[in-house]
Amino acid sequence: MYDCFIRKCLILRLFVSTAVLSFFLFPSLSVAQQSPFTMAQPAGMSRPPFIWQDKCSHKNIGSGIETIELIFQQHGLSVKAKVYTADRHYLSNARKDLIAGKLDGMEANLSVNEDLLMYAKTPRFASGHAIISLASKHLRLKSFEDLKGKKGAIITARGIVNASSEFSAYWEKHLSIDMVPNIEKSFEQLEGGEYDYIIGGKYELTRTINLLPRKDLFDKSQLSSRVYQPVYFGIAKNSPYLQYLDVIDKTIAEMRESGREEFIHRKYMDLWVKGLIKKCEE
Q1: 10-21 average pLDDT score
Q2: What does the pLDDT average to over 30-51?
Q3: How confident is the model over 250-277, as pLDDT tens digits?
Q4: Are 105 and 62 in contact (CB under 8 A)?
Q5: How far apart are CA 121 and CA 245, in angstroms?
Q6: 31-125+230-275 — its CATH code?
Q7: 3-state class of 194 per DSSP?
Q8: β-strand partners of 199
Q9: Could you check whether 31-125+230-275 and 129-227 share the same CATH topology?
């Protein structure tokens, strides 16, 4: 009977010690399990294969969305989108929600809301950037100086892919550039003469040109890498998920190194191409 009592005491001590240790090692695990990571997601933005709105389901899909979901799933966590209109108010609205604790994080340039966010060290998938112009104009654009006196567009939404501070300061003073979220619309505007050039992701621009009936209409050249800064995954400093930042950063790097991130990227590019000719069920 005495031995039985001793065993029960040891088991009880072990149970209490484990519970206390778990509390210090994983202080907000229960919170994270009950409440999904709430992440900012821009609506009405077309940047395939990263994000676009499926014409049948009318939902945002893309490699950027799936990659982040998979990263969290690997650690038993889930993600919930908080949708914002991709306009000039996007950042200010997201900032208010970050302060109020309604948003756990977002993907952005390091200079965006850096007082409210802690960023992963590994940048998200980037394929380099290019500049497109009409071949008939023979512009051969390659540097900042080449853009002077011309009207252009950057295919992006402010806060999702930001131009570098050096380029931002230069274009605000010397250039005429619009922020355009829709890649297909920007090509129509380029052909129509509204723009002299388009700046965007090399991978997306190349694929878009290859889908057009007259690929020879366009010139493509590489623009200085200084134009863009990478996009990073950030977690709000007041979020219970902040403890997972280093683990998530490591997972992003592992997905990049293994080639899985590029595989997802290419899968969604194929889905986007097929979606252009897909017919929706009534």
Answers
A1: 39
A2: 75
A3: 999 898 888 888 888 888 878 877 776 6
A4: no
A5: 9
A6: 3.40.190.10
A7: coil
A8: 131, 154
A9: yes
Confidence at 39, pLDDT banded by 50, 70, 90: very high
The CA-based angle 39-41-42, given to 5 degrees, is 155
CA distances from 79 to 1, 32, 144, 197 (A): 52, 10, 39, 37
More confident site: 150 or 21: 150
Domain ranges of the chain: 31-125+230-275, 129-227
Per-residue pLDDT reduced to its tens digit, 197-224: 988 777 678 778 888 888 889 988 876 5
Q: What is the pTM of this model?
A: 0.62
Give yes or no for a contact between 48 and 268, defined as CB atoms under 8 angstroms apart: yes
Cα–Cα distance, 135 to 129 (Å, whole number) = 18
Which of the listed CATH numbers 3.40.50.2000, 3.40.190.10, 3.40.1190.10, 3.40.718.10 matches domain 129-227? 3.40.190.10
Cα dihedral sign, 70-122-90-183: negative
Asked if 232 contacts 114 with a C-beta cutoff of 8 angstroms, the reply is: no
